[in-house]
């Protein structure tokens, strides 16, 4: 009795199905690697803007209950992906009292940039934040150049131009 050691599939449908299945496996594995490379959120540890000297910093304040914050995260991801290699640093500071609320938010609205938990609102007090979301843009010398309260999708080009002018 002789066994075949090679597969000789001649049906085009089966070949295509096999190809699609392999693509799905490759895609799933590549997403697993990308997800594991995401930046893990940290607790506030004496944040000091001077540690980012030479970089433009977009410092964003947000909370899980903030509806406009959900709209700002995709834009911040886009800016991070587009300008991180041009010395833009995006840091989002979460102000929820319970970290689990922020974690649930991040499951639904992932971030590709640094997240800091600040449940006592120390940074918000330091920078006199009045609403959510709020953002502050620092130039490469660590000076505040622009501050925004709220996030408006129709102003994203304006926000991006402000960043570009500092990079």
Detailed description of the structure:
With 167 residues, the chain is an alpha/beta fold. It has two domains: 9-38; 42-166, 3-Layer(aba) Sandwich (Glutaredoxin), CATH 3.40.30.10. The chain has helices at residues 12-36, 67-83, 99-108, 122-126, 156-166, and strands at residues 42-43, 56-62, 88-94, 114-117, 134-138, 144-149. It has a six-stranded mixed beta sheet, with helices on one face. Strand 2 (56-62), helix 2 and strand 3 form a beta-alpha-beta unit. The longest helix has 25 residues, at 12-36. The termini are far apart. Residues 25-41 have low confidence and may be disordered.
What are the key terms here?
167 residues, Glutaredoxin, 6 strands, 5 helices, 19% strand, 2 domains, 6-stranded mixed β-sheet
At the fourth level of CATH, the homologous superfamily of the largest domain is: Glutaredoxin
Number of domains: 2
Low-confidence stretches: 25-41
* SS strand fraction: 15-25%
In short:
This protein has 167 residues and is of the alpha/beta class. It contains 5 helices and 6 strands; from the N terminus they run H-E-E-H-E-H-E-H-E-E-H.
Write the layout of secondary structure elements.
Blueprint: H1 12-36, E1 42-43, E2 56-62, H2 67-83, E3 88-94, H3 99-108, E4 114-117, H4 122-126, E5 134-138, E6 144-149, H5 156-166
Parallel strand pairs: 1-4, 2-3, 3-4
Antiparallel strand pairs: 2-5, 5-6
